[in-house]
Write a structure and sequence with these properties.
Number of strands of chain B: 14
Oligomer: heterodimer
Shape of chain B: elongated
Strand content of chain B: 25-35%
Order of helices and strands of chain B: HEEEHEEHEHHHEHEHEEHEHEEHEH
Radius of gyration of chain B: 24 Å
Number of helices of chain A: 16
Number of strands of chain A: 9
CATH architecture of the largest domain in chain B: 3-Layer(aba) Sandwich
Distance between the termini of chain B: 32 Å
CATH topology of the largest domain in chain B: Rossmann fold
Strand order of the largest sheet of chain B: 6-7-8-3-9-10
Largest sheet of chain A: 6 strands, mixed
CATH superfamily of the largest domain in chain B: P-loop containing nucleotide triphosphate hydrolases
Structural class of chain A: alpha+beta
Radius of gyration of chain A: 29 Å
Strand content of chain A: 5-15%
Chain lengths: 480, 341
């Protein structure tokens, strides 16, 4: 209908018959919460994010079940991995929802109307926060069928849901609050999303480091102080290794402290000082925040690479002045795949080495399996080198063609050439590559395919039903 | 009124100012963003049922003034009172004011009635009360046929109307409208301004109307404040402000073949200092008169009649007659130009 068709009509102005507030209205934080919840879930943003979340879980469960086909990873470990990934994804979504909560309203110019009401700023924050964390319970419920199919009847399912729900709630509170803090200081979503992404990576990267980079006092401290890594560590020890809780309670300190800190900042600082604009000098601070966010992202990536390199260093053989390291720990491939890796030979001595030989060996880990003929597996099993000066390194590239399915260990031996006919030398071995070769991949590994595909489809159906119900409600005269 | 007097009036034991008195009193409001002053001493009062226009070019300080008066910004100095409540109590002031901010955004997936019900509840009404009152407001702004449509489907004009309804949801005593007609077609502008007038008169509220459109300020406002670079360069009733720059210049339009004859006729009249054609094709003549301020407006009107009579007697058709400087637009352009110079 055009404006022209709407005419002002002679009507009684309502001023003479004003409706006075009865004074029995609901608390405003509840009103804001309900409105935000409706905007989030009926408006479509949370539904779309939920759909994406279920798709990601579907892909994850399929990949994990494919690994399970190899019987390498026990169900409890698969279930834990699934929970860990589900938490990581849902926390990210919670962070994004929090990051949109205030700066998004500023950007859409809907914030001023809310601030112009007598609602206290703190109650606005409470309402928005409660709506923001509403994603986590939904995420947990959606994850349950996936966890169930991976658990395959194992008793781990109950504790996984219990502890995952409990610790996930603590982290969801902290991450959503963190996103809201980023949003509190941002005038635009671009800035708040950037800062949030930087913070997310900052917390995520240490939790994804290779196992060896997480050992040692410094590594352990970094894990302990990182709420996500500490939670994962606790869950891993309790759910997978059945370690007694009393040994790992301290690992819950950082997530709890983190959540309390974020909530304190949010409700005691951000709430009372909530303003229409994050600051007049917003351009400067926005640029700064984006640069800091970018720096954090870059640092996160660099530290991940550096830590991986550290892990790489950690697998070096320490036998004598000569070392040989290998850049892989394990691989899962199919028969017929080509596997490539590198080795690095380093002379840590003070004198030049003798000529060197590097030999590759492959053994079958299954005692009853077929004996490996390395010549079939690699076109070049041996590489010869000249002398290596003190402190010098040389790298070698290797290729393996996987012939048979099974479990294999690939390892390298560095052999200094003997000085004379009457002498011998001390070979140095590298760490091995645990090579798992699968015969084929079934289309429906572990029977997870219905869950992987069905989950998103069911959610999509729910979204369509909700949309139609909303349309019907509007057509019938709006919500009562 | 001094700051001390305002404070005394707004103390806990002070009586509330009645609606027949000033609903809004502002005294020496100042605000700077860093080294740049945005508002340099704004003082005014607004009575019930009157519409005050805020005029000024971009960056004049209009939006800053509105944001201060609606408690969205704190002034660096100065004070204001809304219906007897001091600006030191912003939460209480928010219960007394209604605001349509410039470029207000709306939730797209909410219907008009849901939107008003929600805001009504935020002002302390129950859901049923808020819905009833929201329904009546929607009728008041002429949107009853679209009350249950999603706001996302509303045209710009409809959104402005629902915005005005939202501004009235708490039954305010002062309503602030920041560029309410921006982006509307002429009919939409006209209808919205009529609505604003009705609201002011029938609800007996004070309205602060912030606009670039001089004609609409002139058409609906009782009082006007012209701001430039944060400074008040003119204030008072519209007629007073227009009168500030009366230049005793008339513009007469005659058929272009008659322009020479008309010039001779007009030159012969008493009190005429100079007659010059400004647009020979269109037939416009600029007639400068001697200063008639001592005789008041009746003398000026009397002379206008004499001028018209002389042209009629000379059988020269009169296509148009207007007083230069007699419109708010002329005043605005002149004052802002002078201030800039």
């Amino acid at each position: 209908m055009s404006d022209a068709r709407i005419r002002l009509r002679d009507k009684q102005m309502v001023s003479d018959s004003r409706v006075k507030p009865s004074g029995s209205a609901l608390p405003t934080w509840w009103l804001v919460f309900i409105r935000e919840l409706a905007d989030l879930w009926i408006g479509g943003k949370a539904l779309i994010l939920t759909l994406i979340y279920s798709l990601v879980l579907g892909i994850m469960v399929y990949v994990l079940a494919s690994s399970e086909e190899l019987s390498l990873i026990p169900p409890k470990e698969l279930t834990y991995e699934m929970l860990k990934n589900a938490m990581a994804v849902s926390l990210f979504i919670g962070l994004i929802i929090g990051a949109d909560s205030l700066s998004g309203e500023r950007e859409r110019a809907t914030f001023e109307s809310l601030l112009l009401t007598p609602t206290s700023r703190s109650q606005i924050i409470v309402g928005k926060f409660l709506a923001g964390i509403s994603f986590w319970p939904a995420a947990l419920v959606i994850a349950v069928p996936y966890l169930q199919v991976l658990a395959q009847g194992d008793e781990i399912l109950g504790p996984t849901i219990l502890w995952g729900g409990l610790l996930g709630t603590v982290l969801a509170v902290a991450y959503t609050g963190l996103g809201m803090l980023a949003s509190f200081w941002s005038n635009t979503n671009k800035t708040s999303y950037f800062v949030s992404l930087g913070l997310y990576i900052l917390f995520l990267v240490p939790a994804q480091l290779p196992g060896r980079a997480q050992t040692g006092a410094a590594g352990q401290f970094l894990q302990w102080v990182n709420p996500l890594a500490a939670t994962n560590h606790f869950l891993s020890k309790h759910l997978v290794n059945y370690e007694p809780l009393s040994l790992y309670w301290p690992w819950l300190e950082s997530p709890v402290v983190f959540a309390v800190l974020v909530l304190g900042l949010l409700f005691l600082y951000a709430g009372p000082s909530l303003r229409l604009e994050a600051g007049r000098s917003s351009k400067f601070w926005s640029r700064l925040a984006r640069k800091v966010g970018l720096a954090v992202i870059v640092c996160g990536m660099v530290s991940w690479v550096a830590s991986t390199a550290m892990a790489f260093q950690g697998v070096q053989s320490q036998d004598g002045d000569l070392q040989i390291s290998i850049d892989a720990e394990y691989r899962v491939v199919k028969t017929g795949d080509k596997v490539e890796f590198n080795t690095v030979v380093t002379n840590n001595g003070t004198e030049a080495s003798h000529p060197l030989i590097v030999a590759m060996n492959v053994i079958n880990l299954d005692a009853k399996g077929e004996v490996v003929d390395p010549e079939d597996w690699s076109p070049q099993r041996t590489q010869y080198m000249d002398t290596l000066a003190a402190g010098q390194s040389a790298s070698q590239h290797w290729i393996i063609n996987t012939i048979l399915d099974g479990n294999y260990m690939v390892y390298m031996v560095l052999i200094p050439a003997p000085v004379s006919q009457e002498t011998t030398s001390q070979p140095v071995a590298s760490s091995g590559i645990h090579l798992t070769v699968t015969p084929f991949t079934r289309l429906n590994p572990g029977g997870v395919l219905p869950y992987a595909i069905g989950g998103p489809i069911v959610l999509l159906a729910c979204i369509i039903v909700l949309y139609r119900l909303r349309r019907r409600q509007i057509d019938a005269g709006g919500s009562k | 009124m001094t700051r001390k007097e305002i404070r005394r009036m707004t103390g806990s034991n002070a009586p509330q100012i009645s609606r027949s008195q000033s609903l809004l009193l502002a005294e020496d409001l100042r605000k700077s963003y860093g080294p740049r002053p945005a508002l340099r001493g704004l003082s005014f009062s607004l009575q019930a049922g009157r519409i005050l226009g805020f005029l000024g070019p971009n960056g004049a300080g209009k939006t800053t003034a509105i944001r201060i008066l609606t408690t969205m910004l704190e002034p660096d100095a100065g004070h204001f009172v809304v219906d007897g409540i001091s600006s030191e109590y912003p939460d209480r002031i928010r219960r007394k004011i209604g605001v349509l901010p410039e470029n207000l955004g709306f939730p797209k997936n909410t219907t008009g009635i849901e939107y008003l019900t929600y805001f009504g509840q935020l002002y302390g009404r129950t859901a049923a009360e808020a819905r009833t009152y929201g329904q009546r407001l929607i009728e008041e702004v002429g949107l009853q046929q679209r009350a249950r449509s999603l706001i996302g489907t509303y045209s710009h004009g409809m959104r402005q109307r629902i915005g005005i309804a939202r501004a009235l949801v708490n039954d305010p005593v002062v309503v602030f409208l920041d560029e309410p007609t921006l982006g509307l077609d002429p009919r939409g502008q006209q209808e919205l301004l009529s609505l604003v007038q009705r609201i002011a008169q029938e609800r007996k509220v004070g309205v602060v109307l912030c606009s670039h459109a001089l004609s609409e300020i002139e058409a609906v406002c009782n009082d006007v404040i012209i701001l430039l670079s944060g400074r008040v360069i003119a204030s008072g009733s519209v007629s007073e402000v227009v009168g500030q720059t009366q230049r005793n210049v008339l513009r007469v339009q005659v058929p272009s073949p008659s322009i020479s004859k008309a010039r001779q006729v007009l030159k012969a009249l008493p009190n005429v200092m100079k007659v010059a054609p400004t647009d020979k094709v269109a037939g416009w003549l600029r007639v400068e008169l001697v200063d008639m301020a001592d005789g008041g407006s009746s003398k000026a009107y009397h002379f206008n009649n004499k001028l018209l009579g002389a042209l009629i007697r000379a059988k020269i058709p009169i296509l148009g007659l207007e007083a230069e400087g007699g419109r708010l637009q002329d005043v605005f352009l002149q004052l802002t130009e002078e201030a800039i110079q």
